[in-house]
Specification:
6 copies of one chain form a homohexamer. The first copy, chain A, is built from 11 helices and 8 strands. By secondary structure, chain A is α+β, with helices and mostly antiparallel strands. In chain A, the strands form 2 sheets. In chain A, strands 1, 2, 3, 4, 5 and 6 form a 6-stranded mixed sheet that branches. Chain A has a two-stranded antiparallel ribbon with strand order 7-8. Chain A is elongated, with a radius of gyration of 23 Å. At the A-B interface, helix 5, helix 10 and helix 11 of A face helix 5, helix 10 and helix 11 of B.
Chain lengths: 329, 329, 329, 329, 329, 329
């Protein structure tokens, strides 16, 4: 049986495939018939279907299948009126030998369209080239390098925007590119502003504004979760912690460190969005706008892709709580 | 007596100078002594001082001086504890012959740091080069050209931001440059978005988002005023009017016109800021952010320049209703 | 078999009837059994029931039935525990010959309790008799006459209030009657107000305040939808467009036109309700209150009629988001 | 010396006049010179001017003049740059004999343009004729008659709207007339509503909605003040008290009393405007709108009369916190 | 068959038990199968399960079972995947003779963990000992004694907090104890405050702040309901009524009564929470905080007990609309 | 000449006194006469008066007097119509020898009514006795001891509440006492809550909730100022920093530290009041209420003491933005 990819299967096709289990919920029909709702996914398609208690897979499902586990499955793909489904023929946990057949966990996870290492390298390169203050540059580069492993896969959020493997890098790189442009532009437009715009600080702030996600979010195969400290404290305060802890070592001048902390603390602008202080420096203002636009733009892209409402506008049941205009065909 | 510039005079210097009268208010001291508070300005400095009813200028001031009129004045400049003042020796209205001595109205008005014609030309050039749809390009170029005279001097607002001669051009050009960058960036980042980002539309929207100021604001030498329709209808709706009236002639396809109107209508995003609809297209989202950042940035620049609060932060009595951080010396 | 009316059938009665299909949704029971939820209505009753995929009508339903289409049906009416239902015996699309049997589309649509033509005539009569300024009267009468066909059936909204055939006329006539009373009353009470209340303007504003619905709403047999421009621009701005386009022809003096536009623009009073400007003239104030009360009153009438909550108050799940008091019985 | 009326004096005219002292504040000029700011008024004009400590009237002013007291004054009226003033020649408290010369307190108080007794009689007549339920009619008539003396002069508020002698009657009569119209109209429009609109209740509610002002406001010659219970409890709750206390005697059926109380409790609609509950009956809805429009309309009339801002719109510093459009001359 | 308690039964156990029916709703499965959803409870456990129309109990259930009725049941307890259920073997209404077997209604109702009579006695004791003003003490004691029967079982709310038999007493006693502490503390801390803190008033206010629940809530076996006046007027205003009616008899001095009324009126502090006035006296401030903390604390206790969300935080779908931190195991 | 205390001087009395200069502002009268507004204070009275440029003290005042400096003054106290004033006879800076005459800076500063050292000792004693977890107790005691010097004088705020020397201690001690009571009470009331209330944590949180004021506020003789980091970051985040830095040394278990940080972060409850997270633990809930009541109570005490509005209620121009009821005399 050939190894196939779930997201490329067509109606009626049978094959062996590697998938991640993402959901197992015990439910009952209204008239009392018990079943498990289960879901499996690869990087681009998710199928969900019932496993009846009294069906052949009922006992196995109850006793041993676990969300967050990778499985090798033989199944027939069905494109039904109730969405895409899978008729199971065989199922077992992935084992070491499967790597020889091409298995890797990444093949089952939603991830950035861009290569994580390339994004990481570009971010480091921007930091090295564009941050002129030595101590600040060192701080940023160190923080990226020391957390490289986690940053390569970290999502930007548990849902809302960039909620996929590599989402943090994709979002942060995009915000940083915009910030480089805006810092140059506004410095050129207002050379007489005092104190003069600190372009290095804008870039450092853009790269580090979401660094607290490292402590707020616990990525897991079946979807990211908030940590205890993420719930009780939040990424804005924890991002400032990470910078302060590192800054001690890097010898950043006090006022510069304070301005950098302020960019992180104020980057969501309003108290009800999590920022205890509004942007009070031009540098913080730029990072806030670059960040906010990038998040909202990605949300709009997702809504346009996923909304199934007929007609020229989408439903307003989405992360923006508003309609998006798709246009007349 | 040499012709001097008010904004370059030093304490005790006497000279002949051309100024604009901006204020004449009849007041009385607490103990009942009547006087006129008057103010005169050139492009960069404003002086204000009392004319006592019973002083030599009292009768002239009451009977003939008018705010909004240009005067040739001989006076001694005094930098007093109560701010800069002028001891009047002579005063008469400017006449035609004064142009020979270098008078022009513009020398008495606050104005953009940039050359209005160059800004205008750059805006037209962007429209010609970057807007690919023929009808849309024509619409934008026509609107700029037909309103060229007013646009060369129009402020962007009566106060708040870019409230000076040429302010509309300075603000709109800046927003347009940012929008060009963002349109290219996000189109490259999400080439698969459907409908695809219409970069021409972003640029047209950026150039025209504030076109309604032509009908909302009546520029006057002593400061811009709202028109009756500006008060009752507002620039957002009137900007859409201008575009719709012109579009009839230019034969813009319906859906494209609708999307362009929407950018104008939604560019302030929130109902309480004047937008009846939030940005519902990616194009509108970009123009909103480019516009909002530019306005807020210019406000922050002004606050940093003008605030006189001692210490590391400014007062919060300013157009942003918040403190701005200046830093420790 | 006699032709009967759906809304007059009793339990167990069989008959031939003309109905409009309003819903066809493909669903599945929790345990995976597929069916279509369908609904049919006449002017005063709607029935909905399942068509199982494997039932005799399953294939026809899937392949050819369409919401928005009129059908001649033979069926048995059942008043079941799950609401009123219909057992289908025969079903075919309505054809030309059915008019001979009394079919007309209107018999299947919810509509105003009042005769549309009479309401239209009364509205025109009020305009002719009570609007004293010639140009203003002409503008209003022309706009009514030119849009007569659409206005005879237009609903006032897609839901919320007066969401039925003729709803626009019913609501606008009611608002206009109230406005006639209030204009007379307040003009009499404050004859010394300057500028004096323009009663003609109040009446013109009342008649035209919702004229933009013509472009915002697309009436369809199965329920009104928002147009693209309705979504992106909204009826408040489009109503002003309609008036401005017509005013050019009718030669209305500028200040009068501006005041009329302002009534339309401000008639919902608050930005978050869609009005970019609050009522800034006494005329606009009157129209706002007459309109707001009429909409809220009709909502309350509907809630009292339709709510099924036991006890002296209704549920708060309704268009007013509050309880309504019905009283102890 | 002829007896004249302050509000009819012309510049330079001397005369004897009866006035009410409304203000006496001890102030000092910036450079330390002490004086009293005093004000006197008749029903339509107020003058204010300084009494210097060291002037002839200084000692009398400090020792014996009291705001809220009526004076007979001989003075010269001056229309100065600092507003209308009075040069005092003689001043003494009004005494009994002055009535022979035409003095009455009412001639010095701002008051309704309408005759208080006529308004009162009309209100009672409406109650007698239009309230059909016997007990309800009796309750309303009794409450009016028993409080007749206070109601003849009560203002509707300390400021904001109808803040003058007879203001309560003027406002309540106007609201009642509108409510009579609306009750008839909506009962006719929705005869099938259940429970049917209780027109008697609408009228009773309109007449009594502000009855709590009797306990909230303490009218005083120099301007109404809030009572202690007005501050701590407010007129909405106290109005309900008055009705409940009277209802015990009048034997109103429980549900009718409850609905009447609810009209009073909900007549300002929003919690932040003082209503703990929103209108939950059609009767309460009508009274709320009739009341709100009347208050706002009177505010707009006052703003148009009193605002001195040049140009087509008023300032926004007024009780409505918004601009009002006056129009181009 | 032994008499057992529903809340102590274990899986598979059969027994005779006394229960209260709390729910009977007629529903249908998605595929049209009709059933009744029924629920029964004792003081600490509720079971709910379907009664199919065509099952042996179908007819009895439809025809005679009523929520709010007590039943003697023989059944087998099942701890199923769909929650705790009961297999019915026998069922009949409770009759007089059952008291001999230990039946009392209270055994089927959720109730306070504390003895109602002891709480009542403690409350009266506090009033007697700590309220020094004679008339005030008498008023409070009288109100408690005259309403003793209702207060012994009254819940504090229909849901949200302390929504069980005896909940009013539990909440009020707790608020009163805190208020005694705070009154002593703040009087000691600010002995120089004028007027001095009236400790008796604090305690009287604490005891009576929710007395209006007597008229707002109608306790019923199957759960408390709002009365008509509770819906239209609310407990805050009705609590003040109760005090005012009693105060007439008790001869409370006017200012003291007013301050007491104010505590009741302001105890929820914000208009949107139901208080027309904010706390304007130190006494009202203390009662507000003691009350608010007690309600919120009890909500948090319930959320921690009932939330079933896995992980260190609860869901945010609860009466506080926020997550509560439970901690890592 | 005897040494006297400014706050005890009577009209016309002459004496030598030690005072702190708090204000020196250069102003001008409306008619252009320049002067300095100066103010001097001891611990309980402040006088302010003009020093005219051309008066004997004019030059000294301009050249050498500085706010924040202590002076020995000989003067005559005058209780004038313009408030209390001082006629200066002699003035010089305080010098070392003045201590022999009883001078200490504290005699010129507003300060707590309680002894700072006693409050400090009580706070430490509570920590030692009531915090059972060893590491937590050590952390709290260490933080208090290491910052003892600053804490002995720190105010609780720059204005609003407890804005005087020792204010931090007075406020924190009061909050802690209340928290001890509430922790005991609620632990006793809900012994079955899981996780059980951690009383030690409540007390630690109460003591440390405002510890960040150490970094937010810079106390200065003439009044406390915000530091740069106070402006850009705020005391809530900086308080958490202080605890985290100390906790590393004290080896506090992670979950306990996290809960303690959360109390600090959430103690102002709402985002717009500065708390990025609401109280999510019972411990945080208690500290929030104890803190909020104490601040509001002290504000009300100050308003009652300082408001000069005549009548039974204060003005609403105060830190609570509302009226406070004082009562009828």
């Amino acid at each position: 049986m050939p190894i196939v990819s779930l997201s490329e299967m067509t109606n009626g096709q049978e094959g062996d495939l590697f998938v991640l289990m993402t959901v197992k919920e015990e439910l009952t029909t209204r008239d009392g018939k018990p079943y498990f709702k289960v879901a499996f996914r690869d990087h681009a398609r998710e199928v969900n279907f019932p496993i009846w208690h009294d069906s052949p897979w009922g006992a196995d499902c109850r006793d041993s299948w676990q969300p967050g586990t990778f499985y090798k499955v033989r199944g027939v793909f069905r494109d039904t009126n109730y969405g895409p489904q899978l008729e199971l023929r065989k199922i077992r946990e992935v084992c070491g030998a499967d790597e020889a057949d091409g298995f890797s966990p990444a093949m089952c996870l939603a991830q950035s369209r861009f290569d994580a290492r390339e994004m990481f390298d570009e971010l480091v390169a921007i930091a090295r080239e564009k941050i002129e203050e030595q101590a600040l540059r060192q701080l940023v580069v160190d923080l990226l390098e020391h957390n490289k492993n986690e940053l390569l896969t970290l999502p930007a959020a548990t849902r809302n925007h960039h909620a996929f493997v590599g989402g943090w890098l994709e979002h942060v790189l995009s915000v940083t590119r915009t910030s480089v442009f805006l810092a140059n532009k506004y410095d050129q437009d207002y050379p007489e502003m005092r104190p003069r715009l600190n372009k290095s600080l804008v870039i450092a702030g853009a790269i580090l504004h979401d660094i607290g996600k490292l402590r707020e979010i616990k990525p897991q195969p079946q979807g990211a979760q908030y940590t205890a400290s993420g719930n009780l404290i939040g990424h804005i305060l924890q991002g400032r912690d990470i910078v302060r802890e590192a800054a001690t070592a890097d010898g950043l001048p006090g006022d510069l460190l304070l301005r950098l902390e302020h960019i992180i603390v104020s980057h969501q602008r309003l108290p009800e969005w999590g920022s205890p202080k509004p942007p009070m420096t031009p540098e913080a203002l730029i990072v806030h706008y670059a960040d906010d636009l990038d998040a909202k733009y990605q949300m709009m892209v997702c809504i346009l892709r996923e909304d199934t409402n007929p007609g020229p506008v989408t439903s307003k049941k989405n992360v923006l709580y508003q309609k998006v205009y798709r246009g007349e065909e």
